[in-house]
C-alpha cells in the first residue's frame, strides 16, 4: 500500500497547535520540530514486532474535551489518526501504517464511578484492565473480561476490539456487558451515550458500532460496564487427554456436571505445552505426554460444594476413560501456576522470533483439524525443523474451547515470506469452507484487511463502508486498516 496523498503532512504549525492545547508532557514528537522529546518508537511498533509505522507525533489527551478538540483539528486539516490504547492488539490495528498521528489514551485512566448495588462501573477509556479489576476485587466484584494482556491493555482498547478472553463462556461478550459508551467522532462531536441502564429499547443501539469498531469511526473516551459479583470460591483442574474426540466429550461433561459454576474451558495441544516448557523450563503439571490438555475453572459461592463437584467430575471422566490424567489445584499459587501454562503461551511462542497468528471461530467438531492440516502443509513444504535454516519452530493450537475459538499459531525464527505463502490464504479458505470466522476475537486491523470477504458478504461489507462514511466522511480514523 501507498500513503494516501489526501492526508496532510504534519507541520510545525500543527504541532504547535497541539502542544499549546494539551500542555507539557502530553506529546511525543520526533522529527517535526527541533525539540524531539521521548523515544517515539514504542508507539510505532506493535506487541508482536510485526508492524511498524512512522509517526512523528503521539498525542496524549487528558480529557474528553481535549480528544474532541484534537480530532476536530485533525479533521479540519485532513490529518490522519490512529487511536491507541495499551498497544497489545494482535492484528496491527493500533500502530500507524505511515505517518498517522497516534492518539494514545493512557492519560485518561481514572475510574469515574462504581455502584455497589448494581455493579455498574464507569471508567475512562485509558484505564488499564487489571487496575479496574483490582479495584473491583475490593468491592467484591469482578470485571467481566480477563485476558493475558490485562496488565497493559486499556478498557477502551478492549471495547474497541470487542476482546473475548478467558471467561467469555461464563460472563458473555462485551456486546452484552457494556451498558454505555462516551465517544468522540472525527468532527469533534461528543457522543454521550454513557448509559447505566441494563435495558433501553429506544431505537438503534449505536454504541454497538464502537464495540469491535477498531477505532475506525471515533475514539472511545468512557465506558460504562456491568460487572458480576466476584465468586469467592475458584477452583482449577488441569487435564490430559488422548484425542480431540475426548476433549469434546470432556467439554460436554463439564457443561453438564459443573453447569452454573463453570467459568473457563481452555484447550492447549502438546506442541504448545512443549514450547512453553522450552522457554520457562518449568515442570509440567502432568507426568508423561498427552496430545491435548484442558484447563477447567469453576467459580462459585461455596468452596466445599464446588470442590466436591469438581472432584466428582474428575473422578467420573477418568473412570470413563475420557480423561487420561488430571490434577486439581490445591491453593491460589497452584491456580496461578496452572493458568500460566495457558496464559503464558502467546508470550513464550514469541521467544524464537515471529509468530503467525490466526484467531478463528470453527464449528467445534472440526476445530483442531485445521492445526493438523496446517502442520502437514508446513511439513510437506519442508519449512519446519530444529535447524537454524528451518524457519518454523512449531505449529500449535490452543484457545477458548468453550467458545469454539481456536488460536492457530505458527512460531518461527523470523517472519518469512515462504511460510506466509503456505498459510495465506490457505487458513482463510479452510475456515470459510466451514462457515467459520477468520477473526473470533482479535479483529481485522491491518493483518486481515484483505480477507474480510472470507467471513462477510458483499452486502455486509457495503453496509459497513456506508456506516464508515457516515461517521468519518474524511476518512481520517485509522486509515489503511480493514475498512
Ligand atoms: P490497542 O492494541 O492499543 O488497540 C487495539 C485496537 O483498538 C486498534 O485498532 C486501536 O486503534 C483501537 N483502539 C484502542 N483504544 C481505542 C479507543 N479508546 N477508542 C477507539 N479505538 C481504540 N484478545 C482477546 O480478545 N482475547 C484474549 O484472550 C487476548 N489475549 C491476549 C493476550 C496477550 C498476551 C496479548 C498481547 C494480547 C491479547 N489479546 C486478546 C489481544 C487484544 O485485542 C488486546 O489485548 C486488547 O483487547 C487490546 O487493548 P489495547 O488497549 O491494548 O488496544
Ligand atoms: C489468547 O487467548 C489470546 O491467549 C492470544 O487471544 C492468542 O496469541 C494468540 O494467538
Ligand atoms: Zn484468545
Automatic annotation (TrEMBL):
An individual GO BP term: malate metabolic process
Molecular function via GO: (R)-2-hydroxyglutarate dehydrogenase activity; D-lactate dehydrogenase (cytochrome) activity; FAD binding; metal ion binding
UniProt cross-references to Pfam families, sorted A to Z: FAD-oxidase_C, FAD_binding_4
Uppermost EC category: oxidoreductase
Keyword Mitochondrion tagged: yes
Domain FAD-binding PCMH-type: 51-230
Enzyme Commission code(s) on record: 1.1.99.39
GO cellular component: mitochondrion
Main location: mitochondrion
UniProt cofactor(s): FAD
Cell compartment(s), UniProt: Mitochondrion
Keyword terms: FAD, Flavoprotein, Metal-binding, Mitochondrion, Oxidoreductase, Transit peptide, Zinc
Family matches, as InterPro entries: FAD-bd_oxidored_4_C (IPR004113), FAD-bd_PCMH (IPR016166), FAD-bd_PCMH-like_sf (IPR036318), FAD-bd_PCMH_sub1 (IPR016167), FAD-bd_PCMH_sub2 (IPR016169), FAD-linked_Oxase-like_C (IPR016164), FAD-oxidored/transferase_4 (IPR051264), Oxid_FAD_bind_N (IPR006094)
Substrates-to-products reaction catalysed: (R)-malate + A = oxaloacetate + AH2; (R)-lactate + 2 Fe(III)-[cytochrome c] = 2 Fe(II)-[cytochrome c] + pyruvate + 2 H(+)
Function: Catalyzes the oxidation of D-2-hydroxyglutarate (D-2-HG) to alpha-ketoglutarate. Also catalyzes the oxidation of other D-2-hydroxyacids, such as D-malate (D-MAL) and D-lactate (D-LAC). Exhibits high activities towards D-2-HG and D-MAL but a very weak activity towards D-LAC.
Stated family: Belongs to the FAD-binding oxidoreductase/transferase type 4 family.
Protein name: D-2-hydroxyglutarate dehydrogenase, mitochondrial
Organism: Amorphotheca resinae ATCC 22711
Amino acid at each position: 500500500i501507498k500513503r494516501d496523498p489526501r492526508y496532510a503532512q504534519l507541520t510545525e504549525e500543527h504541532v504547535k497547535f497541539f502542544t499549546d492545547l494539551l500542555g507539557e508532557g502530553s506529546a511525543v514528537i520526533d522529527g517535526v520540530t527541533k525539540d524531539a522529546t521521548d523515544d517515539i518508537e514504542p508507539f510505532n511498533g506493535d506487541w508482536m514486532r510485526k508492524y511498524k509505522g512512522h509517526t512523528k507525533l503521539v498525542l496524549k489527551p487528558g480529557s474528553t474535551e481535549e480528544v474532541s478538540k484534537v480530532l476536530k483539528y485533525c479533521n479540519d486539516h485532513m490529518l490522519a489518526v490512529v487511536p491507541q490504547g495499551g498497544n497489545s492488539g494482535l492484528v496491527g490495528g493500533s500502530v500507524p501504517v505511515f505517518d498517522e498521528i497516534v492518539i494514545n489514551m493512557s492519560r485518561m485512566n481514572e475510574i469515574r464511578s462504581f455502584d455497589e448495588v448494581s455493579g455498574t462501573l464507569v471508567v475512562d477509556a485509558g484505564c488499564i484492565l487489571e487496575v479496574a479489576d483490582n479495584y473491583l476485587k475490593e468491592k467484591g466484584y469482578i470485571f467481566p473480561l480477563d485476558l493475558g494482556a490485562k496488565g497493559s491493555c486499556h478498557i477502551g482498547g478492549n471495547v474497541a476490539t470487542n476482546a473475548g478472553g478467558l471467561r467469555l463462556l461464563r460472563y458473555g461478550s462485551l456486546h452484552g456487558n457494556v451498558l454505555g459508551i462516551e465517544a468522540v467522532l472525527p468532527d469533534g462531536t461528543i457522543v454521550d451515550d454513557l448509559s447505566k441502564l441494563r435495558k433501553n429499547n429506544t431505537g438503534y443501539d449505536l454504541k454497538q458500532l464502537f464495540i469491535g469498531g477498531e477505532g475506525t469511526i471515533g475514539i472511545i473516551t468512557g465506558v460504562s460496564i456491568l460487572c458480576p459479583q466476584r465468586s469467592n470460591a475458584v477452583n482449577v483442574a488441569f487435564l490430559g487427554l488422548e484425542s480431540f474426540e475426548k476433549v469434546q466429550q470432556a467439554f460436554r461433561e463439564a457443561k453438564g456436571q459443573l453447569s452454573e459454576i463453570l467459568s473457563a474451558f481452555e484447550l492447549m495441544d502438546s506442541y504448545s505445552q512443549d514450547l512453553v516448557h522450552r522457554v520457562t523450563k518449568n515442570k509440567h503439571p502432568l507426568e508423561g505426554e498427552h496430545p491435548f490438555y484442558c484447563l477447567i475453572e469453576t467459580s462459585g459461592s461455596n468452596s466445599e460444594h464446588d470442590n466436591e463437584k469438581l472432584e466428582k467430575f474428575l473422578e467420573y471422566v477418568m473412570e470413563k476413560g475420557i480423561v487420561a490424567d488430571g490434577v486439581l489445584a490445591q491453593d491460589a499459587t497452584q491456580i496461578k501456576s496452572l493458568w500460566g501454562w495457558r496464559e503464558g503461551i502467546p508470550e513464550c511462542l514469541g521467544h524464537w522470533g515471529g509468530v503467525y497468528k490466526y484467531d478463528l471461530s470453527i464449528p467445534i467438531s472440526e476445530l483442531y483439524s485445521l492445526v493438523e492440516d496446517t502442520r502437514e502443509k508446513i511439513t510437506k513444504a519442508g519449512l519446519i525443523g530444529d535447524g537454524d535454516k528451518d524457519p518454523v519452530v512449531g505449529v500449535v493450537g490452543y484457545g477458548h474451547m468453550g467458545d469454539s475459538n481456536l488460536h492457530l499459531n505458527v512460531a518461527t525464527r523470523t517472519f518469512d515470506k515462504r511460510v506466509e505463502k503456505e498459510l495465506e490464504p490457505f487458513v482463510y479458505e479452510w475456515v470459510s469452507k466451514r462457515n467459520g470466522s477468520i477473526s473470533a476475537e482479535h479483529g481485522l486491523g491491518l493483518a486481515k484487511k484483505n480477507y474480510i470477504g472470507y467471513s462477510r458478504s458483499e452486502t455486509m461489507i457495503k453496509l459497513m463502508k456506508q456506516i464508515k462514511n457516515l461517521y468519518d466522511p474524511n476518512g481520517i480514523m485509522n486509515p489503511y486498516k480493514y475498512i
